[in-house]
Design goal:
The chain has 2 domains: about 30 residues; about 200 residues, OmpA-like domain (60s Ribosomal Protein L30, Chain: A, 2-Layer Sandwich), CATH 3.30.1330.60. The protein is of the alpha+beta class. Helix 7 links the parallel strand 3 and strand 4.
Amino acid sequence: MAGGSWKVAYADFVTAMMAFFLLMWLLSISDEETKKGLAAYFTPGAQAVSNIITPIGVANNPLIQYVDKLDTRQFKMDEIEQSRYAIARALKEYLLQDALPSASSGITSDGIGVLLHITPDVMFKPGSMEFSDQGKRALDEVVKVMNKYKVYLVVRGHADSSETGAPDYPSKWELSAARANAAVRYLIERGVNPSYIRSVAYADTRPKALPNDPDRVTRNGRVEFNFHRPEVMSTIVGY
């Protein structure tokens, strides 16, 4: 047996060389934009969630910036990975087409999935949990994503530390929960399978803006839509 161990090592070496030459061939037939997108994907920083919003409301994250330039057919990606790219691309196109204010929305991506966030002043009518026209369009886009791709969704409600929730909501917890639950109810009423959705309330425990940010209240009171891999729902990662 010991005398044949070299065969295993040799087979591993040949496999690695085949993978290397295949990678070189793929790079040789790819254009510069695709190479940039691929390089961004394998950059460690591309896997970290970014809270920096560009003037067009799309996260300054390499994966998001180049997501519409990657042709997933050229690379061996599993179905889940391809869905993540497709979702990010669809949401990016929606944000650009809908021309939402730069500080009111954005998308980020990490190893878990894709995150869309929208501030309450855009999502709801002033002083209520009734959705604005822009809020309905955003939710309708979420419905399209959920109906097209096999992904799960966690809707996360937030609040700013200055918000009291009065008179309808006794605390920031109830307020942030109401924001998330209103979105979930809208999605289910429009046919999204409730088994694929969860809602979570964070109150003011996860602020997005600094205390001196003039848009702090609206940025911290956001509603987030976290589209993620199926197994994340059971392990509760990223909630």
